[in-house]
Design brief:
By secondary structure, the protein is α/β, with parallel strands linked by helices. Helix content is about 30%, strand content about 20%. The strands form six sheets. Strands 1, 2, 3, 4, 5, 6 and 19 form a seven-stranded mixed beta sheet that branches. The longest helix has 22 residues. The structure holds flavin-adenine dinucleotide. The site of flavin-adenine dinucleotide has 36 residues, from helix 2, strand 4, strand 7, helix 4 and helix 5.
């Protein structure tokens, strides 16, 4: 008996959808709904239980929260998108598959579309979905640069602290220092403070004055300038100190954080000797920006570009198309730019897919959306340039600092691989030390390993986007186990 929408799809031999969207965050949901409005049949898959992605993350249902713990700027507008999703589901235009993690996508053997392989639910049931076109809206994850003491209990990711608050309604501590780099630190501090934590300081490694060099981009994005001013005023009201061009270079405490040492940085992010000062706290929320999540796209051959903060994003045209025909993308996958940009790009992509599949006219509105998108992308590049890690950050590391936490590889071991054994890139360091071979497959340590090898982080190349059971792998074409596609393809 079929017991889920995905099972039903397989059991009835349902036709391929016009469009498969991976990710029901702001970009993916708006793309799916916009396309469905224009007559496109959509299957929308997301690893999470509810739509919303990172920005509109919901509290766990058993907590019974009526309103989000972190105020959402776009809450009312978001509720309307969710209502539209419900209407399309009832009308059969969108098949929504929550708790479905897509681990790989393959082209149909006859070139007619795409086959998505997912694992569903806690039991990791194998599910296969087919569609004529594909839209990847898989968002981003946090960039972590290691520092002495970052493995002490009480040190959490800045976005992770936000996620704890949004989904678990818990704070990482009572007195939480926020550190790292990037605009997310301001949002996280505002949420922590509003939820009752004391934030003694925000420690930002970059200099905010970098924005002053790009006044033109700020002038055409007045909303962003206002948002920055609003967050800044909120922090001043709560007496949060802002230490720009500073970094946490040591964590105190063994079983739990009791405080941190903060040091001034020079323009290359090198710690300035003699400037260390100790700040007591019982938790540290730290993050150095976000990294687009691209495994599915790069495995399919989509072209990438290097963004101004050194991360790798998808190369997209003005209609959200990747370099591979039949694949679109929207949101953080095209470069980190925030929720409003993700919403805009989702709509643009939805319109373009309908245009491509059904010849639907692109309404004049899409030109307005495209202009706004261009302005916001320019602002995103300004932010990325301002917060790009300086090369000197590696000087705040100690030999015993863990670089790869999964495989417990230290700075000394990576340096030995580079300086003594001659490794000149991350791949060779990985082969010599196992850095990046653990559970997270290098998502956490790749930027640090690359920097220690004197390189830019390489584009993501992971054949699977999450760990999968061997039984599920055996269903791929060529293994002869499932009858999916041509076993010889
Ligand atoms: C930890 C974290 C916290 C953040 N917190 C904030 C915040 O508080 N405020 C703010 O302004 N911005 C925040 N951001 C930035 C955030 O990325 C927003 O800009 C916005 O949510 C981007 O929308 P998106 O649709 O591009 O991606 P996301 O919102 O990240 O949505 C991506 C969706 O894709 C799904 N997905 C990914 N891979 C797969 C897969 N293989 N199979 C199935 N589903 C998949 C995910 O479950 C997710 O629902 C945060 C980012 C991170 C990483």
């Amino acid at each position: 008996m079929p017991n889920s929408p995905s099972d039903r799809g397989r059991a009835t031999g349902e036709q391929p959808a016009d469009l498969a969207v991976v990710g029901a965050g702001p970009a993916g949901l708006t793309a799916a709904v916009t396309a469905a409005d224009l007559g496109v049949t959509v299957v929308l898959l997301d690893a999470a239980d509810r739509p919303g992605g990172q920005y509109h993350r919901h509290a766990a249902p058993e907590l019974g929260a009526r309103t989000p713990s972190v105020p959402h700027l776009k809450r009312r507008a978001w509720t309307r998108w969710e209502q539209r999703l419900r209407r399309h589901r009832s009308a059969g235009r969108i098949r929504y598959l929550p708790a479905h993690h897509v681990w790989t996508v393959l082209p149909e053997a006859d070139g007619s579309g795409w086959v998505l392989h997912a694992v569903a639910g806690e039991e990791e049931r194998a599910v296969t979905v087919r569609a004529r076109t594909l839209l990847l809206a898989t968002g981003a994850y946090e960039r972590q640069l290691p520092f002495p003491g970052w493995t002490v209990p009480g040190v959490v990711g800045a976005g992770g602290a936000q996620a704890m608050l949004k989904s678990g309604l818990v704070l990482p501590g009572r007195r939480v220092l926020v550190a790292g780099s990037g605009p997310l630190l301001l949002a996280v501090t505002a949420s922590l403070a509003a939820a009752g934590a004391t934030v003694p300081a925000i420690v930002e490694a970059a200099a905010y004055t970098a924005y002053a060099d790009r006044l033109g981009t700020l002038a055409v994005n007045p909303g962003k300038a206002l948002e920055g001013a609003r967050l800044g005023a909120g922090l001043a009201r709560r007496s949060v100190r802002v230490l720009s061009r500073h970094a946490v270079t040591a964590v105190h405490g063994t079983d739990r954080v009791t405080g941190v040492t903060v040091q001034r940085l020079d323009s290359a992010w090198r710690p300035v000797p003699g400037t260390g000062r100790r700040i007591p706290c019982d938790a540290l929320a730290v993050g150095h920006g976000l990294v687009p999540q691209l495994e599915l796209a790069t495995a399919l051959g989509c072209a990438v570009r290097r963004t101004a903060d050194g991360t790798v994003a998808l190369a997209l045209d003005t209609r959200q198309r990747t370099s591979v025909p039949g694949i679109w993308s929207a949101g953080e996958t095209g470069g980190i730019g925030g929720v409003e940009l993700a919403l805009l790009e989702g709509r643009l992509a939805g319109h373009d897919v309908a245009h491509e599949l059904h010849g639907t006219q692109l309404p004049p509105r899409t030109r307005v959306l495209a202009r706004r998108r261009a302005r916001r992308r320019a602002f995103a590049e300004t932010m990325a340039a301002a917060h790009r890690p300086g090369p000197g950050w590696v000087e705040w590391l100690a030999p015993a600092t863990a670089v790869c936490r999964c495989e417990e590889v230290t700075v000394a071991e990576v340096r030995e691989a580079v300086e003594t054994l001659g490794a000149a890139d991350s791949r060779t360091v990985k082969l010599l030390t196992r850095a990046g071979m653990g559970w997270c497959q290098g998502r956490m340590c790749a930027p640090a390993v690359a920097a220690l090898a004197g390189r830019e982080p390489p584009p993501e190349s992971r054949p699977l986007s999450c760990p999968v059971l061997l039984g599920n792998l055996a269903q791929l074409p060529g293994t002869g186990a499932s009858g999916i596609g041509d076993p010889g393809s």
